[in-house]
Amino acid sequence: MVELKTPAEIDAMHTTGKFIAGLLDDLTGRADVGVNLLQLEQRARDLIAQRGAVSCYMDYAPSFGSGPFGNVICLSVNDAALHGLPHDYALRDGDLLTMDIAVSIDGWVADSARSVIVGTPGPSDQRLIRATETALAEGIAAARPGGHLGDISHAIGAVAKKFGYRVNGDFGGHGLGRTMHEDPHVANSGKRGRGMKLSPGLTLALEPWFCATTDRIRYDPDGWTLRSADGSRAAHSEHTIAVTESGPLVLTA
């Protein structure tokens, strides 16, 4: 069931989104050579506690995971594409780090992800991140009232094709609001004019993610971390948005 949000409810989600943006800014500034992933996890916990927010990941146990997640942020390094489980790992020069987090404030959720390069950037990694950011921007631009869900999916997929990356169909964006995952599913490729009509009040997390040379993924033994099947690097960008009468509004900018 798709729940359309009122302007007041969207404002409440925007409050959560601004907090998440600030948290990701803070962690981006701390993600340096020698910093341990567990330090970033702890910093995220501290900021969430200080704000009185609630983690959407802690004790999250969906069908695709292996038991409760047990952390407040996904930290995925290099070939890890999604759901990276924070662990004892010190970041190295040139690592590609993706940080993905969702929290609730006063009962309203926002979700965002950002990929960054630690230390010396590699051109291929910069291009991969730029592709996800461009796809996200195009997907957001397509989220206009009167359009269709397929318009967003097509816009994201067209960018992947332009950059020469393949799209995995197993994981994509989603609705959200009172909980982290609501209807509808938002695929990262699709056809214009297909799918549900976009109406004001619809809130979505759009999250293009691409692997450099494959669209296949595999699970780590931890049961959570998803890696590219061929070991190539992965990047992921995500914003929570609202469809409004005047067009898309980014809530996690």
UniProtKB/TrEMBL annotation:
Q: Does the keyword Protease apply?
A: yes
Q: Which residues bind substrate?
A: 83, 181
- Cofactor, free-text remark: Binds 2 divalent metal cations per subunit. Has a high-affinity and a low affinity metal-binding site. The true nature of the physiological cofactor is under debate. The enzyme is active with cobalt, zinc, manganese or divalent iron ions. Most likely, methionine aminopeptidases function as mononuclear Fe(2+)-metalloproteases under physiological conditions, and the catalytically relevant metal-binding site has been assigned to the histidine-containing high-affinity site.
* CDD domains tied to this protein: MetAP1
Which residues bind a divalent metal cation 1 per the record?
Answer: 100, 111, 238
Needed co-factor(s): Co(2+); Zn(2+); Mn(2+); Fe(2+)
User: Which one of the record's GO molecular function terms can you name?
Assistant: metalloaminopeptidase activity
Pull one GO CC term from this UniProt entry: cytosol
Q: Which residues bind a divalent metal cation 2?
A: 111, 174, 207, 238
**Which keywords does UniProt give here?**
Aminopeptidase, Hydrolase, Metal-binding, Protease
Pfam families, per this entry?
Peptidase_M24
Enzyme Commission numbers on file: 3.4.11.18
Q: How does it assemble?
A: Monomer.
This chain's function reads: Removes the N-terminal methionine from nascent proteins. The N-terminal methionine is often cleaved when the second residue in the primary sequence is small and uncharged (Met-Ala-, Cys, Gly, Pro, Ser, Thr, or Val). Requires deformylation of the N(alpha)-formylated initiator methionine before it can be hydrolyzed.
Matching entries from PANTHER family are given as: METHIONINE AMINOPEPTIDASE
What does the similarity note say?
Belongs to the peptidase M24A family. Methionine aminopeptidase type 1 subfamily.
Name it: Methionine aminopeptidase
Organism from which the protein derives: Gordonia effusa NBRC 100432
